[in-house]
Amino acid sequence: MSHRKFEAPRHGSLGFLPRKRAARERGRVKAFPKDDKTKPCHLTAFMGYKAGHTHIVRELEKPGSKMHKREIVEAVTVLETAPMVVVGVVGYVETPRGLRTLTSVWAGNLNDEVRRVFYKKWYASKKKAFTVYAKRYATEAGQKETKAELEKIKKYATVVRVIAHTQMSKVRIGSQKKAHLMEIQVNGGDTKAKVDFAVNLFEKQVPVTNVFAEGEFCDVIGVTKGHGFKGVISRWGVRHLPRKTHRGARKVACIGAWHPSRVLRLPRHTGI
User: Fold this and answer.
1) 161 touches 183 (CB < 8 A)
2) Predicted structure pTM score
3) Is the pLDDT of residue 242 over 80?
């Protein structure tokens, strides 16, 4: 840019780059809260679904602001958090290259909502997922094998996470029947206490009140709604060109210099 008469902030947030379709519809937790072994064992995450949005009126606590101690209106999102079901536990070992999976132990009974996850076409499948694994709990040899794997996690694992899934039958978001499955880290206590805590939750419903308290601050991870193929005006919020502009006004006037003789990523472009 050689010269401009006025300064202006950049168009579009860099926090949403790269702007493209998400690889997964469920947000991925890249870092769980730091573990504190002095606290009792507890879960550190929960899954919910957007039910809608509304607004609230609250008193602002911001010293120095003109609105301090005054009522303001804020937009809020409403999430529906039906109880989750714990169906397994995973142990991880710390290595120089990061965490490595040690072993996994699943519960004896998995309902159809979570078994749908392991099939692309549930209606056309034989529905045999975890039927052989469930027989381990019916024999003495299988129970010994399961107990040995739990002892292995207690002895060698440094990070313990439970495998939990949502209950789509209790969420009013449409016709989806396939549950969402994720790993949730267990923090607090030593490794033995974490494994016992996780196994005690097998096949039990965990409400959101067991994870978060009222008024508690927490991080939210989600995937934004797609808006389809959009132009630069609505996608990036760039300025609308004057009325008499040649070849259209809803576009970026200059998308690059003569050299380098190619279009760079920096100018705002249309897209998904």
Assistant:
1) yes
2) 0.84
3) yes
